[in-house]
Amino acid sequence: MSEELIPETPEQETEENEAAEAIKQRKNGLYPAVSDELAENMKSGWADTELHDLQPIPQAEHTANRRAALSARFPGERLVIPAGNLRTRSNDTEYAFRASTEYAYLTGDQTQDGVLVLEPTGGTGHEATLYLLPRSNRENGEFWLDGQGELWVGRRNSLTEAEQLLGIPAKDVRELPAALAEATGPVRNVRGHDASIEAALTDKVTAERDEELRVYLSEARLVKDAFEIAELQKACDATARGFEDVVKSLDKAEATSERFIEGTFFLRARIEGNDIGYGSICAAGPHATTLHWVRNDGAVRAGELLLLDAGVETNDLYTADVTRTLPINGTFSPLQRKIYDAVYEAQEAGIAAVKPGAAYRDFHDAAQRVLAEKLVEWGLLGDLSVEKVLELGLQRRWTLHGTGHMLGMDVHDCAAARTETYVDGTLEPGVCLTVEPGLYFQADDLTVPEEYRGIGVRIEDDILVTEDGNRNLSDSLPRRADEVEAWMARLKG
Ligand SMILES: [Mn+2]
Q: Distance between CA atoms of 404 and 418, rounded to whole angstroms?
C-alpha cells in the first residue's frame, strides 16, 4: 500500500515551521502547498456518478421492525447507536473495520463512523436519522488530499443513496456533535464504540441508563427473525465448505503447520462472507486441549487429532460457530474413537434437550451427565457415583467449559442479556445456540492414564429452536465417527 499524498513544499525558502503549519492546516481540512493549477485541475472533469432509484436492501423491513421495538421500549428518549471507528493497528495502518453489532442490527449498514440516532417525536415514537460521511467534496481537495477521501478509500454512498438503500433519512455526520450538544431531554448511548460521540454526550448520559440500552439490544437479539435465521444458515453452509477445504488440504498442513489450516479456512470465509466470526482454533495433537488455541503454529501429524473450531461470518455479519475433531490420517485410533464417541453421545443428549419450553440450562446438564457417566465408567473418578461427581462438579477437570451459548451476530451473542432472560431463561422458537461438549486430557495431567494425555475432543453444532423441537443448521457436516471417516476418505480421494 502507498502512503497518503504529502503536499509538496513549493519553494526552497519554506521553513520547517511553515511545513508544520501546512500539516496543521491540512488536518483542519485545508490543503495548501499544491500548485494552484493542480488544485484547480482536480476540481473538475469528474462524471456525475449519483445512482438513482435504488432498491432497499433485503434486510430493510427487518431493521425497521427492530427499530420500532427499540422505540417502544424507550419512549420520549433520544437513543444514540454508533457504528464505531477505525482502530489503529500500528502507525498509520488500521485493523479491518467491523461495525458494532448494535448499529448493524438496527440499520443493516456497516459504515465506519456512522451513527444511528432515534429522536423522540412528541409523546410516543421516534424518528430515525442515520449520520454518515457524505461523498467527498471535490472543490476543497478533500476528495484527493484527505486520507479518508474517496480517491484513497473508494467511493461511498451519497446520503441520498444511503437513504434509499437503508430506508432511513441520512445526514452529514459532521453535524452530529453540535446537534447532540444542543439537544435537550433524556439521552442514552451505546458505549464503547465511538469516543467522540461519548465526549459529546458526557454531561447528558449516565452509565446505568446506557447499560439498560445495551442490555435491551442484547436481549432483543435472543430471538432471531427470518432474515437472521437465513443468514445463520448461510454462515453454517459456508463454514461446512471451509471445513471441506481443510480436509482436502490436510497433506499440505502436515507439510507445513496449523497455519495452513487457518489460512485455508480464512480463504473460504473471505470468498463467501465478510470474515471469520472469531479467531479460528486450528489445534492439532495436544493443542486440542487448549480451549482457545489461536496461535496455530504447531505441527500437524498423522495419527493425532485435529480440533478445528471456526466459523464464517456472512456479509451481513452473522457468524457460524462449528467444531469438528478429525483424525488427521482419516481414521480414529481405538482410544481416540472411545473418547470421541463419548463426546458425540453427550452432544446428542444436549441437542435432544433443545426445544421450546425447555430451560436454557437443560442441554448443558444433559451433556454433562453423559460425560460424567463416561468418566466414571472409565475409572477416572475412583469409586464416586455419577450423582456425586455431578454434585461436586468433578467432571469439569476434563469438560472445562459450558456446553454452549447463544449465537448470532456475535459468536457469543446476547452477552449483555440479564441472567433471568438468558442463563435462567426458557427456550423459544427463533433462539439459536451452540451445543458443544468436549473432553480434554491435558498433556501433563497425571491423574489419567498416559495414553489419554494430549487428547482433546469437542463437537459443536449450531442449533435453532423451532416450533416443535430444533433444527441443526450445521448438520451438513458429519458428526458420527464412522460418518466422519467416510467423509474424510471421500474428500481426501
Ligand atoms: Mn462456541
A: 17
Query: 482: CA distance to ligand 1 center in Å?
Result: 24
The answer to whether the CB of 202 falls within 8 A of the CB of 377 is no
Q: What is the pLDDT of residue 11?
A: 45
Rounded Cα gap, residues 282 and 240, in angstroms: 15
Model-wide pTM > 0.90:
yes
Residue with cell 452477552: 415
Q: How far is the CA of 469 from the centre of ligand 1 (A)?
A: 21
pLDDT of 34:
84
Instruction: Please give the distance, rounded to the nearest whole angstrom, from the Cα atom of residue 325 to the centre of ligand 1.
Output: 14
Q: CB–CB of 457/333 below 8 Å? A: no
CA of 460 to the centre of ligand 1 (A): 7
Q: Which residue spans of the chain are classified as CATH 3.40.350.10? A: 3-43+54-220
408 alpha carbon – ligand 1 mean position (Å): 11
Task: Please give the Cα distance from 431 to 48 (Å, whole number).
Answer: 46
Strand partners, 327: 305
Q: Is 319 helix (H, G, I), strand (E, B) or coil?
A: strand
CATH fold for domain 226-492: Creatine Amidinohydrolase (3.90.230)
- Quote the ligand 1 centre to 480 CA distance (angstroms): 19
Q: What separation in Å is there between the alpha carbon of 458 and the centre of ligand 1?
A: 10
How far is the C-alpha of 111 from the C-alpha of 115, rounded, in Å? 9
Question: According to the model, what pLDDT value does residue 10 have?
Answer: 43
Q: Which residues of the chain have pLDDT under 70?
A: 1-32
Measured distance CA(183)–CA(177) in Å, rounded: 10
Lookup: cell for 174:
459532521
Distance of CA 371 to the CA centre of its chain: 30
Protein fold of 3-43+54-220: Creatine Amidinohydrolase; Chain A, domain 1 (3.40.350)
The Å distance, Cα 46 to ligand 1 centre, comes to 49
